[in-house]
Amino acid sequence: MHVSVRTSPVKAQKSPTRTLDQIAGRLEPPFPLRLLGFGLVYAWSTCLWNTAAVVAAGEPAVHTSAVWLISAIITPLAFLVCALVARNRDLASSRVLALSGPILAFVGTLLAALVAFAPPSIHDIVVVLAAVGTGVGPVALILLWTNLFAHLDMELVEAAVPASFVATLIIAIVIPNLGGGISIVVVSLLPLLSGVLYLLSYRSYVSGELAVYTESARKETQPRIGAIVQMFLLLLVSYTVGCLLPFINPANTSTLLPAPWTESLGMLFAIALAVAIVLFSRRIDLDSLYRWIIAPFALAIILAAFPYGICHTLSAVLGSATFTGLEIIMIIYFIRLATRMHRSPTLLLGLGECAAYTGVLIGYGGGPTTQSLIAGGMLDPKTASLILVGVFICSTLLVPRRTTVWSDPAFTQLSQVSEANMPEKSPMPTAGATANTASLTSSDSFDTRCTRIAERGGLSTRETEIFRMLAQGRSQPYIRDVLYLSKNTVSTHTRHIYKKLDVHSKQELLDLLEDESTSQ
Q1: Cα separation of 435 and 312, whole Å?
Q2: What is the pTM (predicted TM-score) of this model?
Q3: Which domain holds residue 351?
């Protein structure tokens, strides 16, 4: 057992084994790989309607098929029902959803591929069953995963969600290149695999293997109805406009790349964008996202009106990037919002996904009509593009700039506290730190000890402020929200603090604070 002596720190010599451990630690992802199962749900959704066995089911386009249309109606309705009925419930432990979701999606996928071969006597029944399975199954899986994420440490969630879409990206490239029969089998197995990985992840959470959200309790706030309506309309318009883009093609111009590749390039761009927002934005919310995507998405709409292959290729890539980026940030934002309000994320996620899938239904459902108007000369492609740009730009006025969480009086007051009057507060006990907490309640004030340590270590004003909050047991996501800093900035300051004070963990930092108390 290693014992750290604070009064006489000794630098350990690096051994080959320790060096290998450090290399392995840096290569190891910051989350268990089983959490990538969340991305399999979106991989399934992306690949299902691009699979040859489903597209060739006797319809001119998959978005005009009866299975897709009924499924596209069922999905937002299922999200809406869950959002309202289970708005205060924690669905992470629901065995019914954990079993029914993957099975419904699996059966629905197989039936969607068999519709073309169904006898006329049972054709309609197969269509309805396929639509129910593909419409309800993913809803159950998405709500399961997001409810689980709401229990986990936000640092873990912010790493796992974008990484999950990397799995979606890889699968979306590979599966369309498989044969029709093989691809439909592989696609149908994706929700089952996601369900298995979910059960493993939930078991890890219950057993304490996954870092959990342990922020101190805060006064619960109710979401403003007006803010929820704004977010719903914003997402509805964005997805509707995005799904209309392929239909304003003036001369049915083909893209230079196949659809799976344009979608994959868009996903790659969106993942990079989401990582940049997580690392460098002071807030992870819709406001931050739309600041980044307004220009690219507007450009995608404009390019769609020109009869050139390169224009439609870029338009498809930018449109896919907008959809994926919206999905990633929406999930992280709503989970953060729900945890700050100490509520289940089902209400916010359910309404958000309902808006998104309703937009998909309206966009793809109204696309053929738009295409007919353009083909008949009743609507000019550039006019249609201009209208869509105007609608999208106007919709950005609905972006909620502030929410009840960020305007919480206790939250705002804490963010405005200066270094000179930081409230005296004992550190929150963490794992292994119970014995330290009692010592830190001595007559020597917490603020005084922090000041002495900061001066002795040569900490800057901002580093001292962050040091005090770390000494109180605050997590880095909490510090980011209170001080209005980006993840990268807080991480950099924390590394500098650890280096200057010669500590390597929060536990050692608490030990240092305890030693400062007992030495007086």
Answers
A1: 64
A2: 0.78
A3: 222-404
